[in-house]
Design a protein that fits this description.
There is one protein chain. The chain has 168 residues and is mostly helical. It has one domain. It has a two-stranded antiparallel ribbon with strand order 1-2. Helix 1 packs antiparallel against helix 4. It starts with 11 loop residues before the first helix and ends in a 16-residue tail after the last strand. 15% of the residues are buried.
């Protein structure tokens, strides 16, 4: 698990639930905000939004396509975490210190797989930046996948609401 919620070790079932919840929320946030308002809170702060290449608002399809690679990577990493946790002894695991749990993780196949997936994530991020820096509209790979582009808020078409209803 990337970010432990508790300082003390958790039971296996709680760690599995926490991992699933963490991965879900981390990936649901940008997808939901993009689908609902065309921008995340960070994009709202810097006054940019995501629209389709023709300037119209994006929907769930574009938001999901935009996040598809991140969702796939997260699903693979979460699955490996859950497979690892399902193989530990639930009577011993919670009694181990965090250092003891980390030592078991490092000796498992999960550690090597996590390193591979970290390299996949780094490669994806670098390819996103490289593509973004080499095209006129500054579109990243996920924009090409989804048929979207990020624009300054004042360039948005009138049909797109200026602020989300929940924040108005």
């Amino acid at each position: 698990m990337w970010l432990p919620f508790f300082v003390l070790p958790m039971p296996v079932w709680a760690e599995m639930a926490y991992s699933a919840l963490t991965y879900f929320l981390a990936n649901a946030y940008p997808t939901f905000f993009h689908a609902k308002w065309g921008r995340t809170v960070g994009k709202m702060m810097v006054r940019i939004r995501v629209v389709q290449t023709d300037g119209t608002a994006i929907g769930w399809r574009e938001a999901l396509l935009r996040s598809s690679v991140d969702l796939a990577i997260a699903a693979i990493v979460l699955t490996s975490e859950l497979v690892f946790l399902s193989g530990v002894d639930p009577t011993v695991w919670p009694r181990l210190s965090l250092e003891g749990q980390a030592a078991i993780r490092e000796k498992s196949a999960l550690a090597a797989f996590d390193n591979v997936m970290m390299n996949v994530e780094i490669a994806w991020t670098f390819s996103e930046v490289l593509v973004m820096l080499t095209n006129k509209r500054r579109r990243a790979l996920h924009d090409f996948i989804a048929g979207t582009v990020v624009i300054r808020h004042r360039e948005a078409v009138a049909a797109i609401p200026s602020t989300p209803p929940a924040l108005a």
